[in-house]
Amino acid sequence: MQKLSRDEVVEAIKENLWPHYAFQKEIREKGPKVLVKGEGALLWDIEGKEYIDGHSILWVVNVGHGRKEIVDAMAEQANKIAYASLFGGYSNEPAGILAQKLAKITPGDLWVSFLVSGGSEAVEVAIKIARQYQTLKGFPQRFKVIARKESYHGATLGALSCTGLRVYRTSFEPLLPGFVHVPPPYCYRCEYNLEYPSCNLQCVKAIEEAILWEGPKTVAAVIAEPIMSAAGALVPPPEYFPRLRQICDQYGVLLIIDEVLNGFGRTGKFFAIERYGVIPDIMTMAKAMSGGYAPIGAAISRKEISDAFQDYMMMHGITFGGHPVACVAALKNIEILERENLPERAEKMGEELKKLLEPLKKHRMVGDIRGIGLHFAIEYVMDKGTKARIPSDQRVAARVEELCWSKGLYLCRASVDKTYIAPPLIVTYEQLQRIVEILDQSIAEVEREIFA
């Protein structure tokens, strides 16, 4: 790599690098946040300042930074063969071993994996599998996909058409046809003004109503995150997914479970859907699949679905899907998760994090704190009694994030009104205490400005 000075690196980022979900003007005026080193749950920027990684850098680095055994395994594979495509019947050894491993660790009879290089691609593949499967079974009119408002499934056009967050969609409309959105299990802001459990899970019933309204013979699949992440760690009631599974079975609709943000230990289980005892027809995964050490993702389907393709080609391909170095990274990452019992650790540390976060409800603008495992969110409001939303021009969550950064805490993906807390699964209790301490201070400062 070309060696540049600190100032040259900053200038290159400001002038030549297009940021993701960020304002170019702000980066050019304030300067970029440049990370150069990571170890465990700690990060260092280009100035040498230390931070706690409070978000696993986008729900990704579950096993922590600086895992030399993953890096060594990748280097060993790269020295053998760095790249081999899965096109046209060719394959490579790590891809086969990884696919077998995924069949063993995923729920039920999920069996055959389509390997890709990221979460949006995994969702795209899942949609294509569902649609082509329905055609192969004699139902070519089944093309619609039912998703949920407030959901995030990715940024490519198909995944974005599933995504139920308006702010991500408006610049690219019209999106793909055939995607229908229904209310989510958002108990804090129930669209029906009901309360659990007397609501009788109207949000699940809404999915059945949508299937009936669209016509069961036109619906290919329902897609859902077990814990809705971008919406602020929405944990549905225990009956939600069992009932959804029944609805999908009743109408011949496939159930796609999106584990891209939930999977690989984040919620206290290897996969969050395990909490509900439900087996999806197709499941997507990415992000923490390799712990962030290489880009990789997958859509895994039940054997019954893959068997339908025996005499037909799946009309899809990804150049870097099944990349041998990335597959080795994923295998070593999974080995660490299993060996160190990190999902179980996430469950226990999550209970401690919940206790630490609870006192933050003292703040005037903290409306709700929710989550499970090491997957939490804080939702800010203008008024606790009415739950009035924070105006978008206030950018409250972004302001909290900036203050946290100045105090040595890395948080990412700030929305208008939610702060996400999702540290690596190896985080210590002392680091959790420091995360909450910095959050407490930062929320207080922003609150004073908002309500001055």
List the helices and strands and how they pair.
Blueprint: H1 6-16, H2 24-30, E1 35-39, E2 42-45, E3 50-53, H3 56-59, H4 68-80, H5 93-105, E4 110-116, H6 119-136, E5 144-148, H7 157-162, H8 166-169, E6 179-182, H9 202-214, E7 219-224, H10 240-251, E8 254-258, E9 282-285, E10 297-302, H11 303-307, H12 324-339, H13 342-357, E11 366-372, E12 375-383, E13 388-389, H14 396-406, E14 409-410, E15 418-421, H15 429-450
Parallel strand pairs: 3-14, 5-6, 5-7, 7-8, 8-9
Antiparallel strand pairs: 1-2, 2-3, 4-10, 9-10, 11-12, 12-13, 12-15
Keywords summarizing the entry:
452 residues; alpha/beta; Aspartate Aminotransferase, domain 1; Aspartate Aminotransferase, domain 2; 4-stranded mixed beta sheet; 15 strands
Structure description:
The chain has 452 residues and is α/β, with parallel strands linked by helices. The protein folds into two domains: 33-63 and 341-450, Aspartate Aminotransferase, domain 1, CATH 3.90.1150.10; 69-339, Aspartate Aminotransferase, domain 2 (3-Layer(aba) Sandwich). It is 38% helix and 16% strand. It contains 15 helices and 15 strands. It has helices at 6-16, 24-30, 56-59, 68-80, 93-105, 119-136, 157-162, 166-169, 202-214, 240-251, 303-307, 324-339, 342-357, 396-406, 429-450, and strands at 35-39, 42-45, 50-53, 110-116, 144-148, 179-182, 219-224, 254-258, 282-285, 297-302, 366-372, 375-383, 388-389, 409-410, 418-421. The strands form three sheets. The protein has a seven-stranded mixed β-sheet with strand order 4-10-9-8-7-5-6, with helices on both faces. A four-stranded mixed β-sheet has the order 1-2-3-14. Strands 11, 12, 13 and 15 form a four-stranded antiparallel β-sheet that branches. Strand 2 (42-45) and strand 3 (50-53) form a beta hairpin. Helix 4 runs antiparallel to helix 12 (324-339), helix 9 packs parallel to helix 10 and helix 13 packs parallel to helix 15. The radius of gyration is 22 Å and the shape is globular.
